[in-house]
What we know:
The chain has 13 helices and 17 strands. The chain is an alpha/beta fold. It has two domains: 3-57 and 302-396, Alpha-Beta Complex (Aspartate Aminotransferase, domain 1), CATH 3.90.1150.10; 60-299, 3-Layer(aba) Sandwich (Aspartate Aminotransferase, domain 2), CATH 3.40.640.10. Strand 16 (362-364) and strand 17 form a beta hairpin. Helix 4 (81-92) runs parallel beside helix 10 (286-299), helix 11 runs parallel beside helix 13 and helix 12 (347-356) packs across helix 13 (379-396). The structure holds pyridoxal-5'-phosphate. The site of pyridoxal-5'-phosphate (PLP) has 14 residues, from helix 5.
Amino acid sequence: MNIETILTLGKEHVMNTYGRLPMALVKGSGTWVWDSEGNQYLDFVTGLAVTSLGHSHPAIVETIIQQAEQILHSSNVYWIPNQVKLAKLLTDNSFADKVFFCNSGAEANEGAIKLARKFAKIHYGQNKVNIVSLKNSFHGRTLATLTATGQTKYQKGYEPLPVGFSYVEMNNVEELKGAVNENTAAVIVEPVQGEGGVYPISRDYMIKIRETCDEYGALLIFDEVQCGLGRTGKLFAHEWTGVTPDIMTLAKALGNGVPIGAVLAKDQVAASFQPGDHASTFGGNHLVTAVGCKVMEIMTSEGFLEEVRNKGQYFIEKLQNLGQKYGAKGQVRGMGMMLGLPLDEKAPDIVAFCSKQGLLINCVGGRTLRFLPPLTVSLSEIDQAMEILDTAFSRCL
Ligand SMILES: *Cc1c(COP(=O)(O)O)cnc(C)c1O
């Protein structure tokens, strides 16, 4: 199908929920993707931190083929060997003891909120239901998760919203102390805010959140749907802060493109879910957990994350220098392969220019360029991206 046909069919038959660029990607290999017209691009978007091992990674392709030949799906009425294996890999490499599998980030957060409320009811009684989140956060598009999302633009038109949610300004300890009390079931935070504009939470503030939760018996939920799984150069972004949550959610990169989400928790918290309390038909099926195991195997292999951190440092320096060359005032935010360069209202023009020149990046909050290359990106691919960006800055800024 050529792009004209795709646009015509899409406009006629697909709900108009996305502001899409007029292009369709049809093939990918490593850091590179091709559109329906045969144009080639460096992919520094990775389907929004999903294809973290690059496109068509040989080991992932092989895993999918082999699993498809065995069995794709049965049901959680039966045990699923790959699911228990992935649960072991995730718990062996994190604070958690138990995992629940679902299919997306929003579902994982929905599950985390349900688990926190169940735990709070069992241990503290009927009134401990409230969920506190940060302003400018993003937690998903289901009714509960868009309510947890501290940005009204995602909530407008969907009222009445579920009750029991409130919001605090990041880094404002007073507001936090005012919002968390004995009726708080949980505080949910992204260790690095993604959609909000790549804002890492400081170690000091994270420690304050943990202390405040502990003071009132509230659970701490880390939404690592975007920043988790090697994205920041640590397996989980909260490792940068030294603070450990009670519940953590994952999705995006866990399947490198197949849909999977996960809720991780300590034993004492996970025990609040009993048979019948929560479920998902597709959750953790044979295919997605086979891929999840392979992703975890690669990400935890010797030297993998160290290399992400080193390449991230290289990328940050290049980006910072380029910004300075063109008079950008802001500092690069983020770590590893999750970086944001604050600019101004010209950011969307730069995204458009770059895509025409063969570099896919995107823009958050209308003013910040966001870079999410595959963790496997090479230094020379970073250099190529910087050259295109240099041209874009010289034309647009
Ligand atoms: C993308 C994202 C979600 C939502 O994930 P979906 O798979 O789109 O439902 C939730 N939280 C964060 C931090 C995200 O970046």
